[in-house]
Hints:
mainly alpha
Amino acid sequence: MMWRQYLKLTSVEFRIFLREPVAVFFNLFFPLMFLFLTMHVFLSKEAVEQGAINVYIPAFIIIITTGVSFFNIPIYIVKYRNTKFLKRLRVAPLSPITILLSLGTANLLMLLFGLVILVLLGIFLYGATFHGNILLFTGGLLLSFLSLGSIGLLIASFSRGMRTVNVIGQLVYYPMLFLSGAIPLHLPGWLESIARVLPITYAVELTQRLWNMDYFENTLHYQWQTGSAWIDVAVLSAYLLGALSIALLTFKWE
C-alpha cells in the first residue's frame, strides 16, 4: 500500500512540475547558458582544445542538481504547506518520509532529463567524452543529489512563506555556485578556504573525478582541492545524514 501511495504521489509531483515553465527553464536550461559562456568566453582556445569540456560537463551537472535541490524541493514543500495540502495529507496514512521521497523522486526524474540535454550538447557541440565507470558515476551523482536535496529539505523546514524560501534559496545557491569551482573564476585564497566547507565543492569534484577517472593525469594535469574521491564521499554523506535528520525532526505539516 505504501509503495502504491508513493508512486501515485510521485506521478502527481512530476505532472505539477511540467506545468511550471519558469521552473523548467531555470533548472534545465539556465545551466546551458553557463556552458556556452564558459566554452566561448571564460576559457582560452587552448583550454577548449585540450578537452576542458570534460572538466565542466560534470560541474554543470552539479549546477543543475543544486538548482533542483535548493529551489524546486523547498519551494514546493512550502507551497503545499501554505495551501494546506500537507495538512490534508496528514489525515491520510502517509508518513513525512513517503511525501519527501515522492517529491525527491519527481525532481530526480526532471534532473535526469536536464542532464541528458546537457550531456548531448556537450558531446555533439564540444566533443565531450566520458572516461569513467557508468555505475560509479551514477552512484556519485545520486549521492550528490541526496546530499544537496537534504539541504533543500532543511531550507523548507525553516521557511514559513514563499518569499522567505526564495530568498534563502538564492542566498545559499549563488554563493555556493561561484565558490565551488563549477564556473572558471579566479578566487582569492580566503574564498577558496570557504569553498572547502561547502557541499557543492565536494559534489563538483566527485563528479569530475568519476566522469574522467585517469583522464586528468594524462591531459590537463588538473589540481584537486580535496585529497581523494573518498573524502568527497565522506563529506557528502555527512551533509546528507546531518541535514536529513534535522529536516525530518523539524518537518511541519502546517
